[in-house]
Automatic annotation (TrEMBL):
<dbReference type="Pfam" id="PF13483">
    <property type="entry name" value="Lactamase_B_3"/>
</dbReference>
<protein>
    <submittedName>
        <fullName>L-ascorbate metabolism protein UlaG, beta-lactamase superfamily</fullName>
    </submittedName>
</protein>
<dbReference type="InterPro" id="IPR036866">
    <property type="entry name" value="RibonucZ/Hydroxyglut_hydro"/>
</dbReference>
<dbReference type="InterPro" id="IPR050114">
    <property type="entry name" value="UPF0173_UPF0282_UlaG_hydrolase"/>
</dbReference>
Amino acid sequence: MNVQEVIPKIHWLGHDSFRIEGSKVVYFDPYEIAGAAAPADIICISHEHFDHCSPPDVDKIRKADTVIVTDGASAKKLSGDVRVVRPGDRLNVNGVEIQVLPAYNTHKKFHPKEAGMLAFVVTLDGVRYYHAGDTDFIPEMEGLGVDVAFLPVSGKYVMDADEAVQAARAIRPKVAVPMHYGAIVGSREDAERFRKALEGEVEVVILEKE
């Protein structure tokens, strides 16, 4: 993977929301989408909380043939071509491979494992992107073999920067991108702490919000 070629395709929209532009346009957890946005081919939604499953934001980017991949709780809030999945599922959406993984807290009550909340590994144009969802550092992260990992760093509801460092060391992505800060909880300082701790181990790219 050529990092210089891949990073410009990744757009951080704030919080846990990303858009990846390639042969398909893929969104993760669209929330507080500002202005005109590229229409989505695929939307992956990790769980039903308002800052991840936002029907008004989905409507801003959805086309007639947009496919939404999400859990059962979120699906109840959405319409259109919604594919309900669970951790462990794999599917192919118009040539894009999606592996569904769990996301959960290990020592907090906000995202219990039994709720079936989601993380995703999306393979687009040969690049494997891991969106961890709202999670702590969990065993399922070990040996994922992804190219790009989007990892929460803010603490409180999700893992903090120190736990995210452990996660990055377990995943060993080519690039790690911090998320879940700058809205609701967390700040850029969390992202910077994450980057500094991984210097010389994992390349960390802090994206500017679009």
